[in-house]
Predict the structure.
Amino acid sequence: MFRKDLTNSFFNEPYTKESIANRLKQVLNGKVGFYSVGLYPASLAYNCAMQNKGLNLLLAPREGRELFGAFSSEALSEMDKDIRNKIEKMAISNASSTNKYNSLSDLIVNCELIILSSNSNHIMNDIELAFELRKELDRENVVIACLVGSFCHDTYS
């Protein structure tokens, strides 16, 4: 489906040398968020936690999904506890006093790039929701990308 309402919202007008440089600096220093959190995003989080003290990656599991649900019991039991705790911190909102997992809204507020890592039966709904939330939260310059399973197909052709 082609959306006619899509526009370039990465840079805000007026397009000046300074405004473009500031936006690029925001993106380079910003956070990346993964929504849905399957095996691939969780593995990336694990690698980031091992190699990086900063938490520039945020995770938001889809409602009803477990943060570590993509890992086997054996893999979880062998996982370094400190690394596992870092991954938990990537998924829990700093503003939350209840240790509640981040939501897609939290990612949109706190990240410059969000990757919707859904399987094919959720991706269209996730895209629509992300676009609605970007507008509602006045964060339309947040970049939305998709990482979709290979079984995705176009139902519109």
In short: The first helix runs from residue 17 to 29. The first strand starts at residue 32 and ends at 36. DSSP finds six helices and four strands in the chain.
